[in-house]
Amino acid sequence: MTENILERLQEVFRAVLELPPDTDVSQLERDGDSRWDSVAHVWLISGIESEFGITIDTAESLEVKSFDQARALLVERGVA
Prior knowledge:
By secondary structure, this protein is mainly alpha-helical.
């Protein structure tokens, strides 16, 4: 994954979860952060789709439970 793609994904997470710009999101997990609730999850998936020009179906979106899984999804899609 290129550094630019990684930074863009981090920015999506920071923006949706309203995190400070310097927050390390690389270890972020849905179950470990109260800000990542069901509404935030929908916004997060929508943000990823918009930022990278992809469509994520419902089954795939339910599998994204961490920053790392979102990164892996982009790799699978050939975005990274």
